[in-house]
TrEMBL record, chain A:
Residue ranges of domain DhaL in the record: 5-191
Matching InterPro entries: DhaK_L_YcgS, DhaL_dom, DhaL_dom_sf, Dihydroxyacetone_Kinase
PANTHER family: TRIOKINASE/FMN CYCLASE, TRIOKINASE_FMN CYCLASE
The protein, known as: phosphoenolpyruvate--glycerone phosphotransferase
Gene3D superfamilies, A to Z: 1.25.40.340
Biochemical pathway: Polyol metabolism; glycerol degradation
Record flagged with keyword Disulfide bond: no
GO biological process, one term: glycerol catabolic process
EC number(s) per entry: 2.7.1.121
Subunit: Homodimer. The dihydroxyacetone kinase complex is composed of a homodimer of DhaM, a homodimer of DhaK and the subunit DhaL.
GO cellular component, one term: cytosol
Keyword Transferase in record: yes
The organism of origin for this protein: Pisciglobus halotolerans
A molecular function (GO) term: phosphoenolpyruvate-glycerone phosphotransferase activity
TrEMBL record, chain B:
Keywords noted in UniProt: Kinase, Transferase
Subunit structure: Homodimer. The dihydroxyacetone kinase complex is composed of a homodimer of DhaM, a homodimer of DhaK and the subunit DhaL.
Functional note: Component of the dihydroxyacetone kinase complex, which is responsible for the phosphoenolpyruvate (PEP)-dependent phosphorylation of dihydroxyacetone. DhaM serves as the phosphoryl donor. Is phosphorylated by phosphoenolpyruvate in an EI- and HPr-dependent reaction, and a phosphorelay system on histidine residues finally leads to phosphoryl transfer to DhaL and dihydroxyacetone.
Kinase listed as a keyword: yes
Gene3D superfamilies documented for this protein: Phosphotransferase system, mannose-type IIA component
Organism of provenance: Pisciglobus halotolerans
Protein name in the entry: phosphoenolpyruvate--glycerone phosphotransferase
GO MF annotation terms: phosphoenolpyruvate-glycerone phosphotransferase activity
Span of domain PTS EIIA type-4: 4-124
One GO BP: glycerol catabolic process
Its EC number(s): 2.7.1.121
Amino acid sequence: MIKVETAKKWLDLFIEQLLENKVYLSELDTAIGDGDHGNNMARGATALKEKLAEKEYDNLTDLLKDTGMVMVSKVGGASGPLYGSAFIEMAKAAKNDEQVALADLLQAGLDGIQKRGKAAQGEKTMVDEWIPVIEDVQNNQLTTEKVDEYVEKTKPIKATKGRASYLGERSIGHIDPGAASSGLLFKTMLKAGVADE
Amino acid sequence: MSKTHGILLVSHVPAIADGLKELLSQVAADVTIISAGGTDENEIGTSFDKISQGLESFEEERVLAFYDLGSAKMNLEMAMEVATKKVTLYDTAFVESAYTAASLLQADAPIDMIEEQVNALKVK
């Protein structure tokens, strides 16, 4: 069972990492997108920090739902509705099953992302990070190195979804920014100890 | 409100949405056209809140929605899910299809005919 305190710690660390990697994420996005991913995620992170400081959360659903709503409203760009949908769907999964396993929670998030963005595996999007990560969580073998490895694996893919798809062949050789920010999400998840519960 | 349908324009840039509205208004003075461009801070991007507010401000019950690039569609779809209006989204050439819809609504063309002509401009 995922404790709300642990999930809160996860989000606090994620916020910290997004602010720390603002320039890096925007650089990745400048190569194959519109260059605003770091700024967008940092804006969301700042707004989320304020929101989460407003009250004490006693359940996972409210924590995830508020996070999703902030992402939708404040992030801008494609990552707003995508991360927003992920957290809102995770909130629903937590509501339906208070004992929800982490892999199932993340799967609900991925379903939300795919419903919103219509991306499949291999199109050079955050989906290429989420799919193998969830598989590893299921098998209890996710590590920080693996999270980084999956981010790195988006490099040789030719983008066929998202803003990078306008570049076609030119998108090859660059890390997908959405996969990179999702990498931060999963690394902070490990650090907070969510996977150990 | 003198028409059955209104038009919503969603762009990443406020000036694009507002400019397109200006272009459409020239041929469709009696059609309600609402623009929702940019983020809440009027920066480049789209805003779920702005789009939702745009949709709710129509007096018309039905809205034809046009957008420029991918993430505009995602925010538009999220807004449609919570909207009280009946909204139809078109994956069509932004300027051309919105212009077509506006002209035909102004001329009181039946909605089936408008849809057919607009859908012929599908590009995404």
